[in-house]
């Protein structure tokens, strides 16, 4: 680790606000570039880096760093990007399974758009709390734990509300299919 980074890390571990601002200015652009190469989305890259710096400050993530500062930053952003990509893939898989209920066919895109249209028509008929949990999980891509934290409820309540929303939506979507 270079001496400047070591000094900066020591200042961070001692809670120096100016060291955090210096770290942000020194590494923000580079970390956005790292995130951009993985996510291929500039907004997502900026959001990922911003969220990382917020977590670092709020949770004092620097207190246990025992590798080079640059390695810690790179590894942290890389892992966050991988988590985002994994969560997005899982969200798409769950949504496909919910909406299609079968393997992908040649007309998937057309079916997908049609089902999204149908879903947007029936979602208002779901109780508000269940609908919000569904939207946060399947549309926004949050995990159950994240939804619980956002809504201030327990993870088991999230699980229950999500199951309720899915049960109601399946029933409503079946009725829509019968009438079309």
Describe, in plain words, how this protein is organized in 3D:
This protein has 180 residues and is an all-alpha fold. It folds into 2 domains: 3-87, RNA polymerase sigma factor, region 2, helix turn helix motif (Rna Polymerase Sigma Factor, Chain: A, Orthogonal Bundle); 100-179, Orthogonal Bundle (Arc Repressor Mutant, subunit A), CATH 1.10.10.10. The chain is built from 8 helices and no strands. α6 crosses α8 (155-179). The longest helix is centred in the middle third of the chain and has 31 residues, at 69-99. The relative contact order is 0.08. The model is unreliable at 102-106 (pLDDT under 50).
Order of helices and strands: HHHHHHHH
User: Helix tally?
Assistant: 8
Q: What's the CATH superfamily of the largest domain, by name?
A: RNA polymerase sigma factor, region 2, helix turn helix motif
What is the name of the CATH architecture of the largest domain?
Orthogonal Bundle
Oligomer: single chain
Overall geometry comes to elongated
Which structural class best describes the helix and strand composition? mainly alpha
Mean pLDDT: 81
CATH class of the largest domain: Mainly Alpha
Largest beta-sheet details: none
Low-confidence stretches: 102-106
Could you tell me the CATH topology label of the largest domain.
Rna Polymerase Sigma Factor, Chain: A
Number of strands: 0
State the domain count: 2
Strand content is: under 5%
Based on CA atoms alone, the radius of gyration comes out at 21 Å
């Amino acid at each position: 680790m270079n001496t400047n980074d070591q000094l900066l890390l020591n200042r961070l571990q001692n809670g120096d606000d100016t060291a955090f601002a210096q770290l942000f200015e020194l590494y923000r652009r580079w970390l956005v570039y790292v995130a951009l190469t993985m996510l291929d989305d500039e907004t997502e890259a900026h959001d990922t880096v911003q969220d990382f710096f917020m977590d670092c400050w709020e949770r004092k993530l620097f207190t246990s760093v025992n590798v080079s500062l640059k390695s810690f930053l790179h590894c942290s952003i890389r892992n966050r990007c991988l988590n985002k990509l994994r969560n997005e893939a899982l969200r798409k898989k769950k949504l496909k399974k919910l909406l299609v209920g079968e393997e992908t066919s040649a007309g998937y895109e057309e079916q997908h758009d049609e089902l999204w249209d149908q879903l947007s028509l029936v979602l208002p008929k779901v109780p508000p709390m269940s609908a919000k949990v569904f939207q946060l999980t399947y549309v926004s891509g949050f995990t159950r734990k994240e939804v619980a934290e956002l809504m201030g409820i327990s993870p088991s309540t999230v699980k229950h509300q999500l199951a309720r929303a899915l049960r109601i939506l399946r029933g409503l979507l079946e009725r829509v299919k019968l009438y079309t």
